[in-house]
Each structure stands twice: as structure tokens, then as C-alpha cells.
Write a structure and sequence with these properties.
- This protein has about 280 residues and is mainly beta.
- It is built from two helices and 18 strands.
- Strands 7, 8, 9, 10, 11, 12, 13, 14, 15, 16, 17 and 18 form a twelve-stranded mixed β-sheet that branches. A six-stranded antiparallel β-sheet has the order 4-3-2-1-5-6, with no helix packed on it.
């Protein structure tokens, strides 16, 4: 009696287990089918009804099924033809623009102490394009007629130089550019500090008899080296109509901390520059 009862209980447990061991098909129309999945093909899914595991095998088009939830808890999720086509269509309609990390530009208009020309190189340092290393160099053609006058003992005056002569002044201004919204885009703003190294020539006037009755008698004019070092804050507007064409506007203001003419410190001075740039990004 006990053996018969045990056998019947075992059969009941196996039957209950088979009934619970089922998969679920979630159709796109909202229906849910309790099934036992037999095969998932490239286009079709074959299954048996959970309530009739020994019955016929049914076949359904894969495009009708949103997902399969298996008895072990795993899932298969299927995309419709429309969903599969959407990323391709969006990629064609809105292709992702790739901006390079390097910009080489020329400045056909650069204004510092005079009007000149410039050349610059920029390198983006991070993936988001927030920070760039920036290295511009400029040559300015300035009318350097405000020379200084030196008396023995180092006395210096900023009187006007009588000759009208044009000199070349060279600027090298390494620094960084910070883009609050990143440098990848058609219009971007940047701000950042730059060091300023200034090299050039300047005439100075020396008077040999400062304390005589004629202190301005017999002046000597000397063409001497000029050097200045300072810092600037630059504001930049980058316009990039295409991933490779670069247009830029730049305005900078600063001050010199060291300024020497003929090896003599002549005090601080203001710095300013404006540039229009055309370049290539790669």
C-alpha cells in the first residue's frame, strides 16, 4: 500500500513539474502564450503548448514575437524590422561628425602693437575637447617712433623719437584654451591664459650732458634689442562649418612683467591683440 502511494505521489510531482516547466511567448499585440519552445530559427519559432506537451508543434513568425521568457529566467528579446532599420536611418539622416584633435591656422589679420601676420597650432588634450594646448606666433610691423631717452646714471624718459621707422616685433604666446562646452561643434567659445614673449628692436636716445646748460645737446641714437615677458587672457570664438574648416576670432588683454630695452628695465606695459584666423582641423 505504501509503495503504491509513493509511486502515485512521484508521478503527480513529475506531472506538476512538467506543467510548471514552461516558457512564455510575449507577442507584439500584447498576448502571452504559455509554451515549451522547441527551436528559435532565423525567421520562425517552433513550440508546443504547455498544456499539451505531447501535442502538435506550432510555428509562429519571429517578427510577431517581442520576447521569450524561458523557464530558467533567461530572456531573448527581438527587434522588429522597423526598429532594426531606425538606427541605420538615423545614422544616414544625422551622421556623427568627427572632429580632429589638431588645428593649424594662419592669421591674415593680426593686430598687436601694429598690424601683422600670425601662425598657430592647437592640440586638444582630452576626449571631450575641454582643454587644448595653444601655440600662436606673430610678426607685427609697427611704427616704433616712441623710443626712450637715456641720461648717464640710467635716467630714462619716454620722449618721441624724431625718425619715422618701421620695425618687426615678434610674439610667441604659448598657453591653454578651455572650452566650457567642449571644442566639438560648429560654434564654440574658449577662454584661457597665455604667456607672452616679445622680441624686437627699438631706437633709444642718449644725452651725454644731462646736467649742463644744454642737457639735450649732441644726442646719440642707438638701435637696441627689446624684450618683454608677460601674460594675457585670450577669448576665442571657434567657427567650424565643416569638420575640417576652421575660422577663428580672438581677443586678448594682458600686461608685461618684464620689459627691457638695451638691457635696461623700462617698466611694465599693457598687452593687447586681436586676430582673425583661417585653418584646417584634422
Amino acid at each position: 500500500m505504501h509503495i503504491k502511494t509513493l509511486l502515485l505521489s512521484s508521478i503527480a510531482l513529475v506531472a506538476a513539474g512538467n506543467a510548471l516547466a514552461q516558457d512564455k511567448l510575449y507577442k507584439r499585440n500584447g498576448d502571452v502564450l504559455d509554451v515549451k519552445v522547441k527551436e528559435v530559427g532565423t525567421r520562425e519559432i517552433s513550440y508546443k503548448r504547455a498544456s499539451n506537451a505531447e501535442g502538435p508543434t506550432y510555428i509562429i513568425n519571429k517578427s510577431e514575437i517581442e520576447r521569450i521568457e524561458y523557464e530558467n529566467g533567461s530572456e531573448d528579446v527581438f527587434m522588429s524590422d522597423r526598429e532594426r532599420a531606425r538606427p541605420e536611418r538615423e545614422a544616414k539622416e544625422h551622421p556623427k561628425v568627427k572632429y580632429g584633435r589638431n588645428i593649424i591656422a594662419i592669421a591674415p589679420l593680426q593686430v598687436t602693437e601694429g598690424v601683422g601676420l600670425g601662425l598657430s597650432y592647437e592640440r586638444v588634450l582630452d576626449k571631450k575637447g575641454i582643454i587644448s594646448f595653444y601655440l600662436p606666433a606673430t610678426i607685427a610691423f609697427n611704427n616704433n617712433n616712441n623710443s626712450g631717452e637715456f641720461f648717464p646714471g640710467g635716467y630714462y624718459n619716454n620722449y618721441g623719437y624724431p625718425y619715422n621707422e618701421t620695425f618687426q616685433t615678434y610674439y610667441v604666446m604659448p598657453g591653454i584654451k578651455i572650452y566650457p562646452t567642449g571644442s566639438k561643434g560648429k560654434v564654440r567659445y574658449a577662454v584661457g591664459p597665455s604667456l607672452a614673449f616679445v622680441f624686437g628692436k627699438q631706437y633709444n636716445v642718449y644725452y651725454p650732458y644731462p646736467y649742463s646748460q644744454y642737457p639735450y645737446y649732441n644726442p646719440t641714437y642707438r638701435l637696441e634689442d627689446r624684450f618683454a615677458f608677460g601674460m594675457m587672457i585670450n577669448n576665442s570664438l571657434n567657427i567650424q562649418p565643416t569638420p575640417h574648416l576652421y575660422l577663428g576670432l580672438e581677443l586678448g588683454l594682458g600686461i608685461t612683467y618684464i620689459q627691457q630695452v638695451g638691457g635696461v628695465d623700462v617698466g611694465t606695459n599693457t598687452l593687447g591683440q586681436f586676430a582673425f584666423k583661417v585653418g584646417y582641423r584634422f
